[in-house]
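Homework help board

Subject: predicted structure for assignment chain

Our instructor gave us this sequence and asked us to write out the predicted structure in token form, then describe one feature. I got the tokens but I'm not sure how to describe them. Can anyone check?
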Amino acid sequence: MSLSNIRRIGLGTVQFGLPYGISNKIGQPDKNTVHEVLDLARANDISLLDTASAYGFAELLLGQLGTTGFRIVSKYTPPESNISIDEQLHTSLEMMQCESLYGYLSHRPQNLLRHPEQWDALKHLQDEGFVKKIGFSLNEPAELDALLEAGFHPDLIQIPVNYFDRRFIPYFDNLKSINTEIHARSVYLQGLFFLNDFPDRFKPVENVIRQLQQQITRLPAALLNFVLSDARIDQVVIGVQNKNQLQDVISDLDHSEILPELHLTISEDILMPSKWSH
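My token output:
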């Protein structure tokens, strides 16, 4: 087992606080199941948790179970007139029962362009020691272009990267040149790669996915290793429903096949889950 790659895996927590994932047939895990996942993660040097105030009860649950030994990245939503970024952060810290965060990201970074004072608020929280790294969670490269052009240089960004979605990869060298830490999410594209029945919107990729399912015996591991193979990615955030799923990830990490070359241009209507309901 590659310890360096294990340490690059982070745990997403959206599924702890909300029903999540197109192929999720298990549902939202209960408190004891989450506790088992966290214990197994700790025991295997998986030390990053990714959460957000928008993830239902996820932050509260983490606080109840304890986050000792984990670095936590959370995200704020655009502040409403009566809830500042400072207040959102301190609410998150209180719920998670911790004194500071490893990272605090804008969940809607386009809002920073309209309200650059939010960046000043993040920097202030960083200066006060409540946050180590600040940045944004992105959905499409146009957001990154606009933010960098406006002078927002993040310590940390979170972006979707997977076998289908390679839109951000051309930016990696530039991001590394300004010392930005890169966290990849959506490795499994919310479970799209594991579907058995394909709604019409996914018909353009059905054949490719079915071929992967037939040819790759450990598909989750192969998809994860595809992203881990890019050393410029510092952390890869994955979601699991229970400790057995996490154990499978750990056990299979060194035993996965190489994915075939992709000869298909895939539209953002498929790459971006936010467009799936449209």
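Reply (TA_rk): Your tokens look well-formed. For the description, you could write something like this. The first strand starts at residue 9 and ends at 12. That's the kind of observation they're looking for.
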